[in-house]
Amino acid sequence: MPKIHAPASASKSTPFETKNDLSAGVRTKVIDLLNARLADSVDLQSQVKQAHWNVKGANFIALHKLFDEIHADVLEYVDEIAERAVQLGGVAQGTVRTAARSSQLGEYPASAVDGEQHVAALSSALARYGKAVRDAIDEADEFGDVDTADLFTGISRGVDKWLWFVEAHAQAR
What pTM does this model have? Predict the structure, then answer.
């Protein structure tokens, strides 16, 4: 399975100087990995908010509240990933335009209205994001950065929980 990295233009410059004991070469690779997942995270955050704003139907209030809770956690993922890139001497590439160019997530269906459509769309986005984060755990570990691997492990656990919560809305049928 191919590994997912940020586009070449994202952060190929030498990291800023830091006394962090990871080598500049390792830090550069990890910063690229972090920025790739940051693009996905910013995209996921906007997709969850899209669902929160637009969900309709019999399960409106439950889904509206659930999507808001997911959004809050995804905002934390965005911040943790961006800050880790900067801690390693990099620049966090977290703009909406960067996310639109670089995200590995699929396009969110603008036509989604009812709860079932949003559940289907968000469960797909969460599953894809979870896979990318699990791949990032392995990559960070291969690079020798156990702290970044641990950061992604925590995110992976959270995403799996939210995927379960969202999928549960479709599993009783």
Answer: 0.90
